[in-house]
Amino acid sequence: MDLDTLRKKIDEIDQEVLKLLNERVRTAAQIGHVKRLEGSPIYVASREEQVLRKLGALNQGPLSDEAIRAIYREIMSAAIALEKPMRIAYLGPEATYTHQAALKKFGASIDYIAAPAIPDVFHLVAKGDADHGVIPIENSTEGAVSHSMDMFFESDLKICAQIFTPISHSLISLSQPNEIERVYSKDQAIGQCRNWLHAHLPNASIHTCDSTTKAVQIAKDDPKAAAIASILASDLYGVPVVAEGIQDRLDNTTRFLVIGKESSGFAKGVEFKTSFLISVDHKVGALEKALGVFSSRGLNLSKIESRPSGKTAWEYCFFLDVLGHFEEETVAAAVEDLKAFCPFVKWLGSYPNAK
Ligand SMILES: C=C(O[C@@H]1C=C(C(=O)O)C=C[C@H]1O)C(=O)O
């Protein structure tokens, strides 16, 4: 076929695609109406994952599953915006890695609010100024973001989704590396580039600041300074990248959480993760007994992290991640068991265990 004929064919296909897309978002708007009557949440992470999994199973190519997910991310974003204008608070300012994770999850049709600090994300959602919030929770190189974890002690907000984002850091500066005297970034980002900094900028002093974006703002005003941040932040502030991919591990990935007033309901065909916060008695075998509640039911405990209780020195609480949904019988029964002997058990949410 010649070019004109092929382009005519594309135009005809686009007409059909457009008609179907509008039909799809009109149906989503109707769903939004039903949800408003029921008072149920507009964004439903488990349903989205179910739709994406079904599409993955139906897909015969040549589009990759990744491409289907990216395309549908924007279709769903537009659908949600028609159901209700939605606001997502994230740990800002603009162009942070959390901002990028939020965009990846919610797409371009949603309104975003940059919050100055992690507690502000929680407060905006709790007050109803934002429908959901996005916060970093752990990094594959540096481990837990303890400030985020500790917020769950006091907050009643629930986890409704998780987002995994590969993190590639750049050195951003008005000067070349041999002229840099000071390096600025968020503590977590500095920790992810420790070996690189030691090898390439051994004489530079290292300074922490509130965010990777803030670091770029500093580097914009101080030619002897460099920031560790994303290429997006370098573009936004017009400060050049002088070295790329400076993180110590190639597979450096951060896990972010979406928080909201409600967790994510169960959906068939979707694998779930459930997070808990517990404390155990100061007794021999108390922690082992708590963990045994899950293993005896064949439940996979995918993570355990201890944090100081915040009440008494040298007393700890434990964050647990278990594969399964709180609405599933085995998980619910395990929790009932825990409640019988643990002084404190708090369910933090069940959400799709999508990578
Ligand atoms: C349409 C719905 O609302 C939202 C949009 C979805 C979609 O476009 O498929 C899926 C889940 C929700 O986040 C729904 O709940 O089914």
Automatic annotation (TrEMBL):
GO terms for cellular component: cytoplasm. The gene is pheA. Residues 87-261 form the Prephenate dehydratase domain. One of its GO terms (molecular function) is chorismate mutase activity. This is Bifunctional chorismate mutase/prephenate dehydratase. Its EC number is 4.2.1.51, 5.4.99.5. Catalyzes the Claisen rearrangement of chorismate to prephenate and the decarboxylation/dehydration of prephenate to phenylpyruvate. The keyword Isomerase applies. It is found in: Cytoplasm. NCBIfam families: CM_P2 (TIGR01807), PRK11898.1 (NF008865). It holds the Pfam family ACT. It comes from Pelagicoccus albus. Gene3D superfamilies: 3.30.70.260, Chorismate mutase, Periplasmic binding protein-like II. Residues 1-87 form the Chorismate mutase domain. It catalyses: chorismate = prephenate; prephenate + H(+) = 3-phenylpyruvate + CO2 + H2O. Pathway: Amino-acid biosynthesis; L-phenylalanine biosynthesis; phenylpyruvate from prephenate: step 1/1; Metabolic intermediate biosynthesis; prephenate biosynthesis; prephenate from chorismate: step 1/1. SUPFAM superfamilies: ACT-like, Chorismate mutase II, Periplasmic binding protein-like II. The record marks 254 as: Essential for prephenate dehydratase activity. It comes from the Bacteria.
